[in-house]
C-alpha cells in the first residue's frame, strides 16, 4: 500500500462515489419491468442465477445509505434514475425523497438518466426510443431540477451496445455483432436530445459517462496495430468523436441507419455542447489480429470471426474479476483524450473507477484506488482539466451477468441480512477526502 502523502487536487475538485438503480434499488415490484428483469429471468444468463429483485434494497434503505455517504464525507453522489420506475405511478417520488435526503446531508446529487435498465417494450434498435428518452429526461428534470444541478445523460453506451446487443452477455441478450450499430447511434441521438431537454428545463451542468480505456496493440506488427486501431474506433472513438466533434470516425457514419443527410443532422444534435465529459475507467485492453478462435480477457469473451482478438495483459496484478490493474492507463487515457480533442474536450470527471475484491480488509482495493487517484493527479499535472473522481461503487451490488459474485463496494453488503459494513477502503477514502480539504501545509 502506498504511504506517500496524496498530492493535492485543485480547489473545488469533486470527490464522490457512484451506483446505479438496477444494481442497488431492489423493490422490483414497485416499478415496471426492464429489459434486465426479462434477461435475468432466463436460466443461465446470470452466473449465480440471482436477480436484482431485492439487490441492496436501497429503495427502502436509502436513508441509511445517505448516512454512509455523509460519513464518507464525499461532495457528490452519482446514482441513476430508473426509467421503468419513473414510468410507474409514484415512481418519481422515490427520487424526490432521495434528493431531499442528499441535500439535507450536504451531498450533491448527480443523477444518471440511463444506466442500462431500459423499460421492457422499448428497444434501442428503434429510432423512436431516442425521442422517448428525451421526453423522460424532461419529466425528471421538471421534477428534480430545483435541487439537481448536475446531470448525466447515459452510462456507457459502448458497453450497452457491445455486451447487450452485439455479444448478448447483457440484457437484452442480442447477438447482432455489427448489426448492433444502430443501437449505438440511437443512444447517441438520445443523449443529444436529452441534453437539449435538460437545458430547456434550466440545467446548466450536463455531461455523459462514457467508458474508455487505452487500446494496446499486441505487437508492433501491422496486423496487430490495425486490429487495435479498429477496436479503439469501435469501443472508444465511436462514442467520443460524435459527442465531442460532431463526426463519426472514418468509415463508421456510413454504417449507421438512415441516409447520410439524416446522420449529419443527427450528429448536430449528438454534438450538443457539454459542460463536462465523464470517463469511466477500469483497465486498458490489449488487442491483436484475429486468431480464428474465441478470445477473451477480463471477463469478456469475443467470438471468432471478428476482425480483432483480445489478448491477456501479463505481468500485472489482477482484480477478482480478472481485470489487470494498470493505474498509468488512466494518465495515458486522459492525456490521449486531451491530445486528440484539444479544446473540444470540456473538463473531465472520472465518473467510475474501481475494482472487485472480496473481504472487509480490502487492501488490494485501497492499493488500486490509491494508484488510480495518483495517476489522475499525474494527468492533472500534465495539463488535463479534471474536476472530479467517483469511486465505483458505494455498495457491493448486483454486478449484472456476474450476479452478486463480484464485490465492488467500499461498503460490504450481506445479501441475506442486507446489513451494510464499511470496509477498510471506506475509511481510506474518507481520510483521503478529508486530507484534500485541509489547508495545504507550508
Ligand atoms: C458499469 C457498472 C459496473 C462496473 C463494473 C461499469 O461498466 O457502468 O454498472 O458495475 O462497470 O463492471
Termini separation comes to: 26 Å
User: Can you identify the CATH class?
Assistant: Alpha Beta
Q: Would you identify the CATH architecture?
A: Alpha-Beta Barrel
Q: Please indicate the percent range of residues in DSSP E strands (runs of 2 or more).
A: 15-25%
Major β-sheet annotation: 8 strands, parallel, barrel
Bound molecules: beta-D-glucopyranose
Overall average residue pLDDT: 97
Number of strands: 15
**Taking strands numbered 1, 2, ... along the chain, how are they ordered across the largest sheet?**
1-2-3-4-5-7-12-13
Domain count, please report it. Answer: 1
Number of helices: 13
Shape: globular
Rg, Å, rounded: 20 Å
Helix percent band? 25-40%
Uncertain segments are none
| CATH-assigned fold name | TIM Barrel
Order of helices and strands: EHHHEHHEHEHHEEHHEEEEEHEHEEEH
Structural class: alpha/beta
What's the CATH H-level superfamily name?
A: Glycosidases
Amino acid at each position: 500500500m502506498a504511504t506517500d502523502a496524496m498530492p493535492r487536487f485543485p480547489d473545488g475538485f469533486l470527490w464522490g462515489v457512484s451506483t446505479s438503480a438496477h444494481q442497488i434499488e431492489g423493490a422490483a415490484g414497485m416499478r415496471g419491468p426492464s429489459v434486465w428483469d426479462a434477461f435475468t429471468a432466463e436460466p443461465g444468463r446470470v452466473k449465480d442465477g440471482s436477480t436484482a429483485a431485492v439487490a441492496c434494497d436501497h429503495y427502502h434503505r436509502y436513508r441509511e445509505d445517505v448516512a454512509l455517504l455523509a460519513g464518507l464525507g464525499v461532495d457528490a453522489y452519482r446514482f441513476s434514475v430508473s426509467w421503468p420506475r419513473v414510468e410507474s405511478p409514484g415512481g418519481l417520488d422515490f427520487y424526490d425523497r432521495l434528493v431531499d435526503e442528499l441535500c439535507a446531508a450536504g451531498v450533491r446529487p448527480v443523477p444518471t438518466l440511463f444506466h442500462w435498465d431500459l423499460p421492457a417494450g422499448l428497444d434501442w434498435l428503434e429510432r423512436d426510443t431516442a425521442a422517448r428518452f428525451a421526453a423522460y429526461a424532461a419529466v425528471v428534470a421538471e421534477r428534480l431540477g430545483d435541487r439537481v444541478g448536475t446531470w448525466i445523460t447515459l452510462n456507457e453506451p459502448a458497453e450497452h451496445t457491445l455486451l447487450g446487443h452485439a455479444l448478448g452477455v447483457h440484457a437484452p441478450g442480442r447477438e447482432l455483432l455489427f448489426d448492433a450499430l444502430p443501437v449505438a447511434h440511437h443512444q447517441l441521438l438520445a443523449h443529444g436530445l436529452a441534453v437539449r431537454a435538460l437545458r430547456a428545463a434550466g440545467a446548466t451542468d450536463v455531461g455523459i459517462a462514457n467508458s474508455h480505456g487505452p487500446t494496446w496493440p499486441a505487437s508492433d506488427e501491422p496486423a496487430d496495430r490495425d486490429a487495435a486501431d479498429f477496436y479503439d474506433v469501435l469501443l472508444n472513438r465511436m462514442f467520443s468523436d460524435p459527442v465531442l466533434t460532431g463526426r463519426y470516425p472514418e468509415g463508421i457514419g456510413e454504417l449507421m441507419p438512415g441516409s447520410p443527410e439524416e446522420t449529419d443532422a443527427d450528429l448536430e444534435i449528438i454534438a450538443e455542447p457539454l459542460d463536462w465529459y465523464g470517463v469511466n475507467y477500469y483497465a486498458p485492453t490489449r488487442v491483436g489480429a484475429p486468431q480464428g478462435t474465441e478470445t477473451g480477457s477480463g471477463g469478456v469473451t469475443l467470438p471468432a470471426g471478428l476482425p480483432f482478438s483480445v489478448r491477456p495483459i501479463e505481468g500485472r496484478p489482477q482484480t477478482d474479476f480478472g481485470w489487470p490493474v494498470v493505474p498509468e492507463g488512466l494518465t495515458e487515457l486522459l492525456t490521449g483524450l486531451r491530445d486528440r480533442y484539444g479544446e473540444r474536450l470540456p473538463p473531465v470527471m472520472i465518473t467510475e473507477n474501481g475494482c472487485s475484491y472480496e473481504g472487509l480488509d480490502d487492501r488490494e482495493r485501497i492499493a488500486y484506488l490509491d494508484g488510480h487517484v495518483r495517476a489522475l493527479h499525474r494527468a492533472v499535472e500534465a495539463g488535463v482539466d479534471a474536476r472530479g473522481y467517483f469511486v465505483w461503487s458505494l455498495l457491493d451490488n448486483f454486478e449484472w451477468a456476474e450476479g452478486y459474485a463480484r464485490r465492488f463496494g467500499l461498503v460490504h453488503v450481506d445479501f441475506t441480512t442486507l446489513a451494510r459494513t464499511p470496509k477498510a477502503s471506506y475509511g481510506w477514502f474518507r481520510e483521503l477526502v478529508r486530507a484534500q480539504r485541509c489547508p495545504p501545509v507550508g
